[in-house]
Amino acid sequence: MNETVNIRELNELIASKSNFLSLIRNGMHQRIVGQKHLIDSLLIALLANGHVLLEGVPGLAKTLAIKTLATLVDAKYNRIQFTPDLLPADVIGTLIYSIKKETFEVKKGPIFANFVLADEINRAPAKVQSALLEAMQERQVTIGEETFPLDKPFLVMATQNPIEQEGTYPLPEAQTDRFLLKVVIGYPTREEEKEIIRQNIYGALEEIHAVVAKSEILDLQKLVEKIYIDEKIENYIVDIVFATRDPQKYDLKDLEDLIDYGASPRASISLAKASKAYAFLQGRGYVIPEDVRAVCHDVMRHRIGLTYEAEANNITSDEVITDILDKVKVP
Questions:
Q1: pLDDT tens digits, residue range 237-257?
Q2: Are the C-beta atoms of 132 and 121 separated by less than 8 Å?
Q3: Which domains does the chain have, with CATH numbers?
Q4: pTM exceeding 0.85
Q5: Which of 62, 142, 184, 222 has its Cβ near the most Cβ atoms within 10 Å?
Q6: What is the number of other CB atoms lying within 10 angstroms of the CB of residue 42?
């Protein structure tokens, strides 16, 4: 009975906070035509205190999306263009000797921001990628002998271009696991494309202003943590993840030769967190199976290793996830 009361109170509290989300969404749509999935994914990552890896061809408003979000939240935004000659110090910062003070001083890098765009992350070598991913995981940066906590909220949106792979350094699977979501962005519709043309030819983009304070985002993150997940939903999440490790047990024998390795425990955590954030976006204080299914592809597609046989048959991780969702029993 207490659970029912708590959920009811939580629903009311979420409804009272929904105005913040409406303001952010409206602000995003003022600058970005379409791309609802991109906008929702950024909001899920922000509410769940995670990071996003975006894959899409150039010109799909990836940079504009996170820059707009940073403006709406009144937060600091930095963009890092990843190139083959980039060094870890160019990302996290370094020690610089001051002749005047005769001592070393810390010069902080662009990672010290609330919203960081790691543009074309696969164009920089592994040591640079590692420096960024360590900051993402630990939420702190060590320069010399000093350790600096990163400001909250902290969200990294890394982008990858799926077409030009020459001269790139693909992110190892163990490192892509650090991203809460991997989102694949597609082209706009015909109507959206016409609207984009009109916006860029007949008038400048609308000016936007901050609508939410950083402290309010932190309050929303705490509220999302309180969203209720029933044990049946927990079992459903675990079943989905375990089906990637032992397909035969879930009547998915055909997938045994297609999956090289299954998702890690971090996938279960991420699926639960993202489901909570998605439920919040729907105005609910509890998670239902549809929430899990809605975020499953984005949470899992970069956490499943496919065999050579799967790649030879052009089978994608998305197709594997769809098969799993079709077979695993829904509570």
A1: 999 999 999 988 888 888 888
A2: yes
A3: 21-217 (3.40.50.300), 227-327 (1.10.8.80)
A4: yes
A5: 62
A6: 25
